Amino acid sequence: MGDAAANDAFIRRFLEAWQRRETDTILESFDDDGVYHAMPLPPITGKAALREWVAHFEGVTPARLDVHHQVASGDVVINERTDHMTLNGRPVTLPICAVFVIEDGRIKEWREYFDVGPAKAAYGA
User: Fold this and answer.
1) How crowded is residue 58: how many other Cβ atoms within 10 Å of its Cβ?
2) Predicted confidence (pLDDT) per residue in 11-43, tens digit
3) Domains recognised in the chain with CATH numbers
4) Burial, 32: exposed, middle or buried (Cβ in 10 Å; 0-12, 13-18, 19+)?
5) 1 DSSP assignment
6) CB distance 27 to 44 below 8 Å
């Protein structure tokens, strides 16, 4: 079982990298066969697919990710947060619950639960 305090700090640093759009740091945080799964959408698996997905955010205005609650138990970190971002030139606010599974100091699984409605609305969908 992993060190809960270290995993908690690791995820906080990871989210800070997301806010700043630090692609290399984000990708280094994932296991080689890591998975990101926004539950309303298909999962993104493996470093190559993750790199392509993360690259889409490089030109996007940095976001603000407000973590309201975060708990860590062994290899699992769960947080409740609100992401504030700009999509298609429009401000978007997304309440999110995220589950991270850490293996050997890297993200093995990252699952997020949220309503895609606010993001779709930014694109007129």
Assistant:
1) 9
2) 999 999 999 989 999 999 999 999 999 998 899
3) 4-122 (3.10.450.50)
4) exposed
5) -
6) no
